[in-house]
Design a protein that fits this description.
Layout: E1 32-33, H1 43-59, E2 62-65, H2 68-85, H3 89-92, E3 103-105, E4 111-112, E5 115-116, E6 120-124, H4 133-136, H5 150-177, E7 196-202, E8 211-216, E9 222-227, E10 233-235, E11 265-266, E12 273-278, H6 280-285, E13 295-298, E14 304-311, E15 318-319, E16 331-332, H7 333-344, H8 349-356, H9 359-378
Parallel strand pairs: 1-2
Antiparallel strand pairs: 2-12, 3-6, 4-5, 6-7, 7-14, 8-13, 9-12, 9-14, 10-11, 10-13, 15-16
């Protein structure tokens, strides 16, 4: 895990509980921030970062204003996505990979808490050629993306590059907001990160179902959502005294938690903004100072498109609480993300190949190497 010996205690940031005086059908009161083109660590950056941290601790999410160029790229990405999802199902099903979890996922194939979700999805992972050493060495989930067209590829890759730049700057600002003396303490964790994305199409609600996606937290690091004007997204902010599972542990899945309780806030779509919230790795890194945000999607009267971008750690990164050196709670990110995909898609051709070829054995070797490097770099006993 990246960082330095001068990291200030994360506990200096005091969480605040949300106001539940009007909790029924409450619309999330999200602040919208404008992030600078370059983060330098000056007083304005520190103030902005602290405001972002406080917003996460209060509402669980904040918004970021898009520049005109980013907004244009988002619309081109949506346009290319609509063209793809309008194709016949038989054609869409051909865009899958047995090497990576990239490609098409049909409606009902994805389960949350054992119940089928309505969304159909195109997943994008790091696009690696077959000649890449990681692919040749059999790293699980590594390989080419089965792009459905050059237009789709160009539009999505351009937009994801822009989201990647935003993700790096957000990590720098959050580092400042948490009082970390190293501006790049969080960003360095995501160097050559296993960034990936999911383009989602939700059908209109029907008499059979209004379920889009069941309640869950996201297993990764930093989540950036682009949504159209259809709506349907709800979030659950931090609540005093409420148990939040450590979703990275097999025994503590957050899927389906609090699904039918009242304390959910509707996220009203705002044109030319992104919604940003922490995933499970932030909860682990900060030892619970920042909680992974539960969210779910209900179907509405119209078709809904969204793009979920995950700004992730390096595949070989060890994630451990910054300020709890004695904690035995850590994950090897590559093992973690692979297990999450295997849990979500046990019958997918990719999962079957990983298991058939014993690719998890390769992952054990990668994890052992990462733990050894982590222990040497941080001068701690290899546990």
């Amino acid at each position: 895990m990246a960082g330095d010996s001068n990291i200030a205690p994360v506990s200096t940031v005091t969480p605040r509980a949300a106001d539940w005086s009007n909790r029924l059908n409450r619309i999330a009161n999200l602040k919208t921030f404008h992030i600078p083109p370059v983060v330098v660590g000056n007083a304005a950056d520190i103030k902005l970062g602290k405001s972002m941290v406080l917003e996460w601790q209060t509402e669980g999410m904040f918004q970021v204003a898009c520049t005109p160029d980013v907004y244009t790229s988002s619309q081109l990405a949506f346009e290319a996505s609509r063209e793809f999802f309008a194709r016949p199902t038989s054609e869409k099903l051909s865009y899958v990979s047995d090497l990576t979890f990239a490609g098409y996922i049909a409606s009902g194939e994805e389960l949350t808490a054992g119940e089928a979700d309505s969304s159909e999805i195109f997943t994008l992972v790091k696009d690696l050629p077959l000649t890449d050493k990681r692919v040749q060495d059999g790293w699980p989930g590594h390989g080419p993306v089965p792009w459905p067209s050059s237009t789709f590829k160009e539009a999505l890759q351009k937009y994801l590059r822009e989201l990647g730049s935003i993700g790096d700057r957000l990590l720098q600002l959050i580092s400042l907001g948490l009082g970390l003396q190293n501006l790049n303490a969080l960003k360095s964790i995501a160097n050559d990160g296993w960034h990936h994305a999911r383009v989602l199409r939700y059908p209109p609600t029907s008499s059979q179902s209004s379920r889009g996606t069941g309640s869950h937290t996201d297993y990764g690091f930093l989540v950036i959502i682009t949504q159209d004007d259809a709506g349907g997204l709800s979030i659950r902010p931090p609540i005093n005294g409420e148990i939040r599972n450590r979703n990275w542990l097999p025994s503590e899945s957050s899927d389906g938690m609090y699904e039918d309780s009242e304390e959910w806030n509707y996220v009203k779509p705002v044109r030319s903004t992104l919604v940003v919230f922490p995933g499970d790795m932030f909860q682990l890194l900060t030892d619970g100072t920042l909680l992974s945000t539960p969210h779910k999607v209900h179907l509405t009267q119209k078709e809904r498109y969204s793009l979920a971008y995950f700004h992730e750690p390096n595949f070989q990164q060890i994630i451990k609480p910054f300020n709890n050196a004695d904690s035995m709670d850590f994950v090897h990110y590559g093992e973690h993300v692979t297990n999450m995909f295997l849990r979500g898609y046990p019958e997918r051709i990719t999962s079957k190949r990983i298991n058939h070829e014993n690719r998890m054995d390769t992952l054990v070797k990668l994890k052992t190497k990462s733990i050894s490097n982590f222990a040497r770099m941080h001068n701690v006993r290899n546990r």
